[in-house]
Amino acid sequence: METGSRLPLRVMKFGGTSVGNAERVRTVARSLADHAREATLAVVVSAMGGVTEMLIRAAHAATRGDEHRWKAVGQGLAQRHREVAEQLLPASEQAAVLPWLGEQLRTFENLCVGFSLVREVTPRSMDSLSSLGEVMAAALLAATLRGQGIPALAVDTAEIIVTDDHFGNASPLFEETNARTRERLRPLLEQGIIPVVTGFRGATRDAICTTLGRGASDYTATILGAALDADEIWIWTDVDGVMTADPRLVPEAKVIPEISYRESMELSFFGAKVLHSKAIQPAMKKGIPVWIKNSFNPSCPGTKIGASAVGRPGVRAITSVSKAKLFTVSGDESLGFARLAAKVFGSVSLDDIPSLMVTQSSAENVLCFAVHESDGPRVRARLEKALELEMRHDYVAAIEIMPQGGVVVALGEKMKGTPGIAGRLFGALGRCGINVIVIAQGSSELSISFAVKSADVPQAIRTIHEEFQLGRLAR
Ligand code: ADP
Ligand code: ASP
Ligand code: MG
Question: Which of the chain's termini has less CB crowding within 10 Å, N or C?
Fold first, then answer.
């Protein structure tokens, strides 16, 4: 750390529920005041809970010409943010923040008027609108801290996170991002000012606003943490840590005190919303520990995510993507399996579409893979285009798509070398009559994934949770 202080540098990210209303913002500001005594802090904040949804809904209403609807959303946004300012800020801060909030709401209106005129919202303009919640939340939290006598400054990541122009799901250009982050944030940290940074947002080299994908404020925190060589990254959310399963699906799920980077990456890639799927990468590269903590229950230690594989052997957690599409491509033997696979994944890679699982039968020349349901139409179009000639000449027999599938994943670093896990897992599913459609096990043996009907996903998760007794104290 090079902040000129001997205190550790901690990046702290607060999710939408943690700053959902004035009371929550007050609580967060108070806890930051305490933490600031023991660490140098950089704060990342998401939009107030539900605000991003509201903004996206307003944009769609505008494209339908539903002025009544988007204006109602605008009023709701104005009320929620003004309420925080009026309840938490001293008069001097209010005098600056309230007119500024008015300006953000005018930007919202101008964008919605534009969308309703052209009856369209492009991914590019959607990013400018959908990330306004982060801009407002950062300004309010920074002002609240200043109101408590703690030096703080709102910083817009559009100034520091430089991305490609993949609007809606942009990727950071790390060299530039790291340089700008250090240049902008280090002087603040050295002066004892807490930067309160917008999550989710970035901008292209031409300063056009982008977003890093839904739920990506976690990623913002780790990007900044890595750029600043932080000692720790703390992600504050609304659960006690990473749990053995989504607590909404399995009420008996338990907090896992410590998990590895690889386990948490696998969990988040396969749908565990508690962490954005890309968030671990920057922290892992720098070996920075990431803590998941509950802002509603701050005395709970939470989960530490780090390099080493700790905990019990066997299955440690279960996750799922409940809406997936399964594609099966069968090729004539003259086509050769490697060529078939190259064509299929070559076409899918053009859109950077992630595959959730892949299985193959080389002898029969059949390739099966699953993607998120929302990616299904694009994958289908890509495959039909790439394989058009082969299909016309009957070299490729079919592109079958199984509707309403789901992918369930059981994972644990120490599954490797623990015999009998697959047998127990599928035996338990068989006993409760769940039909498994496809199975894949990574060669790293970090996880076993399988596809079932969407409707069977919750039962499959509960069955495995029970079979491996994950509801007992997690280790
Ligand atoms: P935030 O607004 O703080 O970013 P999110 O809603 O994005 O919070 O993520 C937290 C939610 O993730 C929890 O409320 C929980 O329902 C869900 N979740 C899914 N899988 C898991 C898991 N394995 N462990 C903990 N939480 C999980
Ligand atoms: N506010 C953004 C979203 O709802 C980013 C985040 O919450 O992490 O997707
Ligand atoms: Mg989140």
Answer: C
Question: How far apart (Å, rounded) are the C-alpha atoms in residues 177 and 202?
Answer: 9
358-361-365-368 Cα dihedral, nearest 10 degrees: -30
pLDDT in tens, 197-231: 999 999 999 999 999 999 999 999 999 999 999 99
Q: Which residue's CA lies nearest to atom 6 of ligand 2?
A: 215
**Would the CB of 48 count as within 6 Å of ligand 2?**
no
Pocket lining: 49 vs ligand 2, CB cutoff 6 Å: no
Long-range contacts of 99-104 (CB under 8 A, 24+ apart): 100/139, 101/136, 101/139, 104/132, 104/135, 104/136
CA dist 317 and 279 (Å) reads 18
**Residue 85, both tokens:** 């300012």
**Tens digit of pLDDT for each residue in 56-65?**
999 999 999 9
Residue nearest to atom 9 of ligand 1 (CA): 274
Query: In the structure, what pLDDT confidence band is assigned to residue 353 with cuts at 50, 70 and 90?
Result: confident
Confidence category of residue 36, pLDDT binned at 50, 70, 90: very high
The span from the CA of 189 to the CA of 187, in Å, is: 5
pLDDT score recorded for residue 444: 67
Strands 396-411, 447-453: pairing kind: antiparallel
